[in-house]
From TrEMBL:
Species assigned in the record: Vreelandella arcis
InterPro entries referenced in this protein's UniProt entry, alphabetically: CSP_DNA-bd, NA-bd_OB-fold, P-loop_NTPase
MF term (GO), any: nucleic acid binding
Protein name listed in UniProt: Cold shock protein, CspA family
Lineage summary: Bacteria, Pseudomonadati, Pseudomonadota, Gammaproteobacteria, Oceanospirillales
Amino acid sequence: MTQVDIAETKINTLIKEIREDISAIESEEDSKIKVINRIFHECLGWPFSSFICETNHENGFSDYILKIEGNASLIVEAKRIGILGINSTITDKCRTLKISGSTLKPSSEGIKQAHSYASEAGIPISVVTDGITWIIFKNWVPGGYREKEAFVFPSLDSVSNSFSEFYELLSFENFKAKLFNAIFDKIHNSRQYLTSPLVSALDPSEINILQKSPIALDLEKILNSFFTQLTGDENSEIMKECFVESNESRIADYSLEKITNGVLNNLPKDKNKVGSELSNLVEINIHAEMPSDSDMSVFIVGPTGSGKTTYIDRFFSKILPLSTRKQCLPININCLDASGDDNTTVSWLTETVITFLEKELFLEGFPSYKDLQGMYFNQYKRMASGYLKKIYENDKAAFDEKFSTFLESEVRDNREGYLESLLHFTIHNRKKLPIITVDNTDEFTLDFKIKIFQLCNSYRRKVNLCMLIFPVTDKSAWSFSKTDIFTIHQSRSFFLPTPSPREVFRKRIEYLNKKLVAADTIDSKDYLSNRGIRIKLTDISKFAQVLEDIFVENNFTAKTLGELTNYNIRSIMNLSKRIITSPVIRIEDLITSYITTGSISFPKFVDALIRGDYEAYRVSTGDDFGVVSTFKLSSDKIHSPLLTLRILSLLRATKQTGRDVDERHLTINSIVNYFEALGIDSVDIETCLKEIVSLRLIEPYDPSTNVLNEIQKVAITYKGLAHYDLSTKNSVYFYQMALTTGICDSEVAHEIRSYFKSSRPFGEITSSVRKAFSTYLINEDSKFITNNHNNEQFKCQRDLIRDIQAFSISKNDDRTEDQDNLSIHLGKRLIGKIERYDPEKDFGFVSLSEIDDEVYFKTKKLENNELDSIHDGDIIYCTLSKDNKGLQIKTIDGFVNGRNKLQTEKCLIKFYNPERGYGFVIIGATSNEAFFHKTAFPNNFYSHLKEGLEFKAEIRLKEDGKYQVRRCIDVFS
């Protein structure tokens, strides 16, 4: 039985009781207590905690304000039975009546009173009722509420006969979901519903697969293998080997190792007998210096796609020294395996850790009876020396029977106590440090996270020597840091930034160049490219260099791929395979482009991205490759085809001006209010918001919240930013969407189709198609925008319309970037920071705040370089140029005065990891530490780097107050 069926049974029972007692319901208070309260609570599901009575307003006291999650949502004006009147003979069913009409005139005073209270308090819906008659209306309606209709239930019979409508309007669950907006929309708005399917210029059935060349077919097998390994799905080693390091991750490596060693130094060193392990632990804890609580609980914080899980896995398998690694017992908890039910969280986590420990600690996967005797030896002694002493001395068999009964009860019924014993056993018997990593909590509620965090910390405090690691997104960390539980349990945090897609490509291509060998199963063949260059299949190893040219050196392509996938590495690799194997980019042209030093243009890259293997943009069922049409109507009711872009435009502007995470988000309510000022109905806004959340163009502040409500906050994602840029600046994308997006005007669709099928030059075809589509979008949008405000807050909306109009007048078929924004920086002297530079391979990246991106460079390609040597962290003057690969560093014009803060100091290497090429030094006679990378030394000196080495160096004090070695000046022999 559904919830509404249960409620209907309750309302019918209640109506029967009301009729039997109707003569005793005389006053307004009688109506409230005997009827109104009971209907709202018993039948409509509103908890009494949501009722606020007799609220003081400027012009009186409202009877009820009903709240949802602390927000005033519904106002109820109660009357004595008989006060309200309906001038109609039809009273047995729900009706929609104009508020200013003659039928509701006898109730006009109550309606006016309720509206005045609601307007002052900002409440969307008002109810006027005496318990028998119910009048429900919306307070804010274009044109004024009096000129619109209300839902009216004239009698208890009408409530009973039309209960589904009554429940949809006023039940707590439906009101929380704001279903009333859609219900009122049906009677307030006479907009046209889609009576026939949307029409696109090209039907999906007409879009054929493109034919591939012979070399492309033969290379398909190799390319699939290549990109499968690039993705890492079938090769976990590549995920560890090709983890993109940053200074933050290197410092996290070193700090985590120090914490781990600090804890291990407090583990029992002597091989004690099992029977004395608990007493030994007490003695050690008394005499040994224990690590602080903050060193035992660690947060690894980073955006989605920053590689937190890979980082932790790599740390314990490759970074931590083998001798230390052997003393650790990593326990990995994947919360995706949890049901998320708060009632089972504790038992699920407890059982998961128990299962893991039993498998790791005992050969048979569970403890033997002797193992259990050892684990509970302290209890054994307490029983033998205490309340069971006589039995122990007189009848050992009987004592053992009682102790086995105790063990059965502990293992079977006291699972938390059993887990605590297992952790003690791990530490004191097996001499290992338990390290519990709790992963994938981000998609769960804050309450779930808090419960998991508290539970893990409770076990840690019980056994003392146990580490906890929580990889979380920056958003989860932000919300979690505001809770009381976070401040109660001290912890340390390390931040991992999202890796640059170009760095990911570079490292993985480099790795595969060493490991991947072309398949020997394919016969050696010769192919003649369209440039007349003969290619051998055995030359495919050069293909990796072509990939580096496309995905590393071209900042347009890497940035676009990263944003479209919200920087998910696996999705980036899959999308790259789609592009490279697309017939749009001929593989033989890719290979010959390396020989002829040519390059693939960004328009062709976008064309391959959008079309894939087809003649035009096409999305098959289950084929989500990241690109969607932002012009697609998202409901069965006609609305502006620019609504998605209008919302993205607002959130984009909010992200650009926001100073922190909070300010880069907007509440659903503020978005609705913003667009209602432009005349867009709230139902259309909310429907569109749900659609673009599902497409990951925007994301909620709390990723665990699936239902959008008015106080939920959302922000634009990288994917949303990429789609906004494609929709407003990229002629290739705009042209493909014009051909394949379903639109509500069949004549325009036919016009676009005729242009596409014509035999005119391609440039004329694309220009005509874009102009027709642009004109359609602007005309349709104008039908739904009633107010063209010139306020500053609507500037982003005006910019959007200007950009869409530009597609109809621009003669340029290659509007791939915002030329205005880029051009103002070209040739100017800018301040940049060397993020990474590899002197051996002569490549690096400069970050520039003006473009919010990193620009690739090679010193041999610079027109001018004023620095004798370049090192990570240098703050420099530089200029930019632009070619078909995007932005390039044109010149490096020396240091920025006062920004590098260099000093010469004597240094001693305290720690060095030769496998990863980084370490830390002690600066002079101080206790200050400085980070260094091996590239601070001449490359012929790398083999001499070791702990204890003394040298003179330039030291930089960074903006975060930490030190870094810029370069070695001299080595002391």
